[in-house]
Write a structure and sequence with these properties.
The structure holds 3 protein chains of 3 kinds. Chain A is mainly α. Helices cover 67% and strands 0% of the residues of chain A. Chain A contains 6 helices and no strands. In chain A, α2 runs antiparallel to α4. Chain B is mostly helical. In chain B, α8 (201-233) packs parallel to α10 (287-300) and α14 runs antiparallel to α15. Classes of the chains: A mainly alpha, B mainly alpha, C mainly alpha. Chains in contact: A-B, A-C, B-C.
């Protein structure tokens, strides 16, 4: 959480060029292009790996499905992280913005994990409970 | 809080936010958070009246065991309209969008909310959503219950599902934008010296509420989209015939709608913290615990939604998890209740109207909260699910808690909002009527529910008539209690005694500016040097006796 | 400079506070966007885990290479958006407007491809509730498995809402370009450009997840 912001009219003059302190460690064009290229390469990699039938390669349906999902979602998460950190400047913003990103991931996982825990443990044979 | 104290008489001659512009345009295009709060106040009062009208239809029908006053179809529409209006268009915006909107920027010493234009937009979005819902009610009604469970709502209902779904979807964004505005304001707009742990607890409560609004409301929005697609095009998300699962709708629905209960109750708890401290003239006992318990309720509130689904096909193992987490919510709620009680201990308790509502809140919310624990117990819930016990429980929380807090807040800040004092006699009478009428209405429903009377039916066996008649009588007293404030508050605007800057001898920055406040709240940015509720730092002239708090 | 001075709203003490507030507000809004799409992702997870075979079979109806190319188009638009914000921070008006127009162009190409794909679904009768003969039987008259239609219901809900976000974004970008050329933004004040940029990148991220979840899960089925 941030310290209280002390803002009075008196400090307006000093803080006027808001971008000044950003320039030193801010993003550069070179870096944007590097991120862009990384995103393109990852897109191609994910398309190519998706065409591989891992179940066939590993000779196991369940492991194969898991492998495809892990690769595809791992690449997607990497791409999203690159966009968030560099294109969306989270790397250069204060910690509060990072906290917002983390909070959204945590809340999304509440929704996904708790609900899927229901679907994974549903009881179809109530015999166990009625004994 | 020590701030430069202006001469009160100097302020009285100045123009305030109500008088500096008076055209209709200046109201409809205002970016002033105080005026937007009043726009919200007027609109939610209308929706409360509509919701109350349907409540009275329900109570008249249940006066006799036979379903004779309304047909079953009309009865379905009556309880659905009552629920939709009261929940989405009254309770959810009540404290945050009216009181929070008005008071929060004043409390943090800001000139306005962070995004004034978005604040105005949120009111228009709210009104657009409300118009859809009102139109749905008027043009044929909605008979699905406010919960809109499929497959009834998606496949079978012939009523105005699409319009109602659209209304709820749109109104959700008003709530989200209010939340975004509050979060940014609390983080970035606090006056110099106003650290997090110097914030009034009403600000903490609204901050926690805003987190729930931003994290939860979008889920109901997407749920409404899915339900709309299902109802109109038959997409099949919740249709077992197409491989879908109706229980998934309930997961999505309650992921928002359970936390929504905390949108209704948390800010009301914030109001109660302010009132209890002010009228016992004591620093709130356990300030940081009360502040943190708001956040704890906001977070835990997201992990308990499945307790609405114990009797569905939901896994009993997940049910156990939800049940256990639900019990945990009792801890932060109890922290609040105990700290309020401890604040009263050895305080100089003054029995002003807002304090009466606060006492009402404490008693009713206690019953509402504890009966929630009955329902969180899985075995017990099998017996009580969908009975009047549940109806009584959530009315004790949402009306006994939420509405009492809202009424307390309205009476607490009314002198600040309008610059006028209302009648002490009539307002105390109203508090009494509401408290008594409420208990008469809903306590019998606990018994009815325990005996097995199911909700949402327009007829019942003869042996339950006595308790139902009691309930309807209580509702009539309650109605008088709600009509009274409409009269004496309106009266006070025109004939009320002029309110001083700080009629209650309260701390908090909102009481340091004139009543009503100037257009930009403060003439100079206040600087905060003390903790919240520091009554020692108030000048002697601001004790309530000297400024005429007793009328 | 007068236009820049007036862009400080009365209730802020200085530009720094105004900008930090806007950034926090925008991120709070994006959190709600995450949860908004979150409901769709949950629906997807639940039904895909119930009908993995039907989902893979249905996914194989999509054109992976076209989807991949469209993903690259969207990534291009994210790069140009980032460049537009960069140009704005340097006070380069023409550059900013140019990059924004490029962003609009890539966004429009993406939507154009989407229209083409939707048209294909229409032709094959894969639109639930509207044009759904292909969801009941394949072209040889074999009934589709349970869950096949649910995949397409999700496909249209997810890509449709994603497209709606882009359709909202494009006029915003156009407005920025016009205001930028009129000199409304400078190195001291370009917050609207930055905020719209955050929104645009977010829409890109949604697609980054939609692409593998919708297009790639059936890619190996088509390979056989």
């Amino acid at each position: 959480m941030s310290a209280p912001t002390h803002h009075t009219k008196a400090v307006v003059a000093h803080t006027h060029p808001e971008a000044a302190d950003h320039e030193h460690h801010g993003p550069t064009v070179k870096m944007y292009i590097a991120i862009f290229l990384a995103l393109c390469v990852l897109t191609i990699v994910t398309v190519v790996t998706a065409k591989i039938d891992f179940a066939h390669v590993l000779n196991n349906q369940a492991m194969g499905d898991l492998a495809s999902n892990v690769v595809a979602l791992g690449i997607a998460c990497t791409k999203a992280t690159l966009v968030i950190l560099f294109f969306m400047h989270v790397k250069y913003e204060n910690k509060l913005v990072g906290l917002a990103v983390v909070a959204s991931v945590i809340w999304l996982s509440f929704l996904l994990l708790i609900t899927t825990s229901d679907y994974m443990t549903r009881v179809t044979d109530w015999h166990l409970f009625t004994k | 809080m020590s701030t430069p104290h202006h001469d009160a008489s100097h302020h009285e001659e100045e123009e305030n936010y109500l008088t500096h512009e008076t055209t209709i345009q200046s109201w409809l295009l205002t970016k002033d958070h105080k005026r937007i709060a009043l726009l919200y106040l007027l609109s939610i009062t209308v929706f409360f009246t509509i919701g109350g009208f349907f409540a009275s239809l329900i109570r008249i029908e249940l006066l006799t065991p036979a379903g004779d006053f309304l047909t079953s179809e009309l009865y379905n529409q009556a309880f659905t309209s009552h629920g939709v209006m009261m929940i989405f268009f009254f309770l959810i915006p009540a404290v945050p969008a009216v009181l929070g909107n008005f008071v929060l920027p004043l409390m943090v010493g800001a000139k306005d909310l962070a995004f004034p234009r978005i604040n105005l937009a949120s009111w228009y979005i709210f009104m657009a959503g409300a118009s859809c819902a009102v139109l749905a009610v008027l043009s044929g009604g909605l008979d699905t219950g406010w919960t809109m469970y499929p497959p009834y709502s998606s496949t079978y209902s012939q009523s105005r599902v699409t319009l109602a779904v659209l209304g709820v979807f749109i109104a959700g964004f008003a709530s989200i934008l209010t939340g975004v505005n509050f979060i940014a304001t609390v983080h970035r707009m606090r006056a110099p010296g106003l650290t997090w742990f110097r914030l009034p607890l009403f600000v903490w409560a609204n901050y926690a509420t805003s987190l729930v609004m931003v994290l939860g409301t979008p889920v109901i929005a997407i749920t409404m989209v899915l339900l709309g697609l299902e109802h109109v095009f038959g997409f099949g998300f919740f249709d077992p015939a197409k491989g879908g699962d109706p229980v998934l709708f309930q997961h999505l629905f309650w992921f928002y709608s359970h936390p929504a209960v905390y949108i209704m109750i948390l800010p009301a708890m914030g109001v109660i913290s302010e009132i209890i401290s002010t009228f016992s003239r004591q620093k709130l006992f356990g300030y940081s615990f009360v502040a943190m318990s708001s956040l704890a309720i906001a977070i835990l509130g997201f992990l308990v939604w499945g307790h609405h689904m114990f009797t569905t096909s939901q896994s009993p193992y997940t049910g156990i998890l939800f049940s256990a987490l639900t019990f945990l919510v009792a801890i932060p709620s109890a922290i609040k209740a105990f700290n309020w009680t401890a604040t009263l201990y050895k305080g100089s308790v003054v029995w002003e109207t807002p304090m009466l509502f606060a006492f009402g809140f404490m008693g009713l919310f206690l019953i509402g909260g504890l009966t929630g624990l009955f329902l969180a117990t899985m075995g017990m819930d099998i017996h009580l699910q969908d009975t009047y016990f549940v109806v009584a429980h959530f009315h004790y929380v949402m009306v006994g808690g939420g509405v009492m807090g809202y009424m307390g807040g309205i009476h607490f800040w009314w002198p600040k909002i309008t610059g006028k004092m209302y009648s002490q006699f009539w307002s105390k009478l109203s508090a009494l009527f509401i408290f008594a009428g409420f208990n008469f209405t809903f306590f019998p429903q606990f018994i009815l529910g325990y005996m097995g009377m199911p909700r949402r039916y327009h007829s019942y066996p003869d042996e339950w008539q006595v308790l139902n008649v009691m309930s309807t009588m209580g509702a009539s007293i309650l109605a008088i209690g709600y009509i009274l404030p409409g009269i004496y508050l309106a009266h006070s605007i025109f004939f009320g005694k002029k309110a001083p800057r700080n009629p209650w001898g309260a701390t908090g920055l909102e009481w340091q500016t004139s009543s009503p406040p100037p257009p930009h709240n403060f003439h100079e940015t206040p600087i905060v040097t003390t903790e919240a509720y520091d009554y020692q730092s108030l000048p002697l002239s601001e004790t309530p006796e000297k400024e005429g708090g007793h009328v | 400079m007068s236009s820049v001075a007036t862009s400080l709203q009365h209730h802020f003490a200085d530009f720094k506070q105004q900008k930090e507030t806007a950034v926090l507000g925008m991120w709070s809004f994006l959190i709600q966007e995450v949860m908004f799409f979150g409901g769709l992702f949950l629906t997807y997870v639940v039904y895909r885990s119930q009908y993995p075979g039907a989902f893979a079979l249905a996914s194989a109806q999509l054109n992976v290479n076209l989807g991949g190319a469209n993903t690259i188009v969207l990534i291009c638009s994210s790069l140009t958006m980032a460049m537009a914000v960069h140009a704005a921070s340097k006070g380069n008006r023409a550059g900013m407007a140019g990059w924004l127009l490029l962003t609009i162009m890539f966004g429009s190409i993406f939507l154009g491809v989407k229209v083409f794909e939707y048209k294909e679904k229409w032709d094959h009768g894969l639109i639930p509730g509207i044009q759904d003969f292909g969801l009941k039987f394949d072209h040889e008259g074999v009934p589709r498995p349970t869950g096949f239609a649910l995949y397409f219901a999700l496909y249209f809900a997810m890509t449709g809402l994603h497209a709606v976000h882009m359709i909202i974004g494009i006029p915003l970008l156009l407005n920025l370009a016009i205001n930028g050329l009129r000199g409304k933004y400078g190195p001291h004040y370009y917050t609207p450009v930055e905020m719209t940029g955050l929104y645009w990148h977010f829409v890109d991220i949604v697609w980054i997840f939609l692409f593998p979840l919708l297009y790639l899960i059936g890619a190996h089925v088509g390979a056989h």
